[in-house]
Amino acid sequence: MGYLECRELSRHFGALAAVDRVSMRVERGEIRAVIGPNGAGKSTLFNLITGFLRPTGGDVTFEGERLTGLPPHLVCQRGIARTFQLTALFPRLTALENVRLAAQARRSGRWSIAGGGALRADTGRTAEHWLERVGLGPVAAVPAGLLSHGDQRLLEVAMALAQTPAVLLLDEPTQGLSVEETARTVGILRELLAAEQLTVLLVEHDMEVVFSLARQITVLHQGRVIADGPPGVVKDDPAVQAAYLGGLT
Amino acid sequence: MRRWPGALIIALLLAAPWGLPAFLLTSLTEVLILGLFAMSLDLLVGYTGLHSFGHAASYGLGAYAASLVMLQWAVPLPAAVLAGAAFSAVVAVPVGWLCTRATGVSFAMLTLAFAQLAYALAYKWQSLTGGSDGLAGVPRTAGPFGIEWFASRPGFYYLVLLALLASYAFCRAFVRSPLGTTLQAIRENERKALALGYDARACKIVAFTVAFFFGGLAGALYAPFAGFASPDLLFWLLSGQVLVMVIVGGAGTLIGPMLGAAVFLLLEHYLSALTDSWALLLGLIFIVFVIGLPEGLWGLVRRRQGPPALLRLSPPVPAPEREHGLP
Question: pTM value?
Answer without folding.
Answer: 0.89
